[in-house]
Design a protein that fits this description.
55 residues; 1 helix; N-terminal domain of TfIIb
Length: 55
C-alpha cells in the first residue's frame, strides 16, 4: 500500500520538523537528521516520536 503524494508533500519529522525520505520497500518514512524511522501501517504514517525506531 502506498502513501499519497499529497500527504508526503506536507509531512515533516515531528521531532526536528525536517524533511522525510519515503522508503516504499520498507513501508517507512526516514528522518536522516534525527536518524529515526517512522513506520507506515495500512497506508497511515505513524508519526509519534515514541513509536519511531532508530536507524
Amino acid at each position: 500500500m502506498t502513501v499519497s503524494p499529497q500527504l508526503l508533500a506536507i509531512l515533516v519529522c515531528p521531532k526536528c520538523k525536517g524533511e522525510l525520505e519515503y522508503r516504499e520497500s520498507e513501508s517507512s518514512l526516514v528522518c536522516h537528521a534525527c536518524r529515526l524511522r517512522y513506520e507506515i501501517r495500512d497506508g497511515i504514517p505513524i508519526m509519534l516520536i515514541d513509536e519511531a525506531k532508530p536507524l
